[in-house]
């Protein structure tokens, strides 16, 4: 019988298959790694806003409480972003002619709200509720980081399923007294777990069900 393929073809075929398998598993590894990277979750990314609003200045130096601007955070699912009027309560008096504030004045003149770009955003198939967390004593910084130091807002935490579940399995070391939820400088005065366990009991927080798929995917 005549040989159609050269003897070496077999070796090439094996080598080719090996390369293919190595390539595929390598690709899978890259995909899995990328899945939890900052690139995928958008962590530490600054987005362009209609004007350069600084939390470091307003929440940090001027010490305006988060709830002055995010007024629904304790009562609703959404924290809410402030309307132009909230900014104008000060900026009709201070920095009235600053160029950077022109978009704010334009918004007031034309009764057109500013279109802030969202930084922390979950996919639509996930249910989240701010009020429940804030009233359980979970501080803003647990999920949003040191906002009082951010010149421009960025996502400091991945806010992915892994992060939600890690806390839902064991929330105690993440809890604090209710009057400290917006305090970015808060430090526990006693062992954090011991304090947390006590707060769990006092607030009747039950972790049963917190990791059920239907809690966040309804
Ligand atoms: C347990 C985690 C967690 C805590 C605690 C938390 N947030 Fe959030 N926050 C989120 C998530 C997740 C989103 C995105 C929600 C979405 O897209 O549905 C978000 C979105 C926001 C938004 C954007 C828009 C909106 O109306 O919801 C603001 C503003 C905000 N948070 C402010 C705050 C403030 C202020 C506090 C503290 C009083 C706080 N958050 C506490 C997780 C948290
Ligand atoms: C409680 C008062 C108050 C409120 C409310 C307020 N600001 Fe300011 N803002 C100030 C003061 C004071 C300055 C700084 C003046 C200075 O630097 O001496 C300032 C400065 C600024 C600047 C200049 C850049 C900087 O940060 O130094 C921008 C932009 C700005 N504010 C935007 C806003 C926007 C947008 C809102 C509403 C979401 C808002 N401010 C709400 C008091 C306020
Ligand atoms: C003077 C008003 C003001 C105060 C005070 C303020 N914020 Fe904001 N916040 C804004 C505005 C305006 C935006 C939208 C622009 C931006 O992302 O910077 C915003 C955006 C955010 C976002 C991003 C939400 C998203 O998904 O886009 C978070 C998180 C947030 N604020 C948390 C806080 C926390 C925590 C505090 C208190 C430490 C606080 N803010 C205090 C006005 C304020
Ligand atoms: C740092 C801790 C912490 C993180 C992070 C956290 N949670 Fe929670 N979550 C809690 C606690 C504590 C409760 C229970 C509150 C109670 O029972 O009073 C809760 C309750 C809930 C509930 C139940 C609300 C209800 O009405 O039944 C939902 C839904 C929820 N969380 C969604 C999320 C999602 C989605 C994420 C991630 C984006 C998340 N949580 C991240 C601590 C956390
Ligand atoms: C405490 C809240 C929470 C619970 C409980 C939860 N999830 Fe999620 N899940 C999330 C969040 C937030 C996201 C979106 C962010 C991300 O991609 O991680 C998500 C994303 C997903 C995705 C899409 C993943 C992707 O890469 O696009 C699937 C599938 C999923 N969840 C399945 C489940 C299943 C199955 C369960 C029950 C075993 C479950 N989840 C329980 C919060 C939760």
UniProtKB/TrEMBL annotation:
GO cellular component: periplasmic space
UniProt KW keywords: Membrane, Transmembrane, Transmembrane helix
Transmembrane residue ranges: 12-34
InterPro entries: Cyt_c552, Multihaem_cyt_sf
Pfam families linked: Cytochrom_C552 (PF02335)
Top-rank taxon, per record: Bacteria
Keyword Transmembrane: yes
GO MF annotation, one: nitrite reductase (cytochrome, ammonia-forming) activity
Protein name (database record): Ammonia-forming cytochrome c nitrite reductase subunit c552
Organism field: Pseudomonas nabeulensis
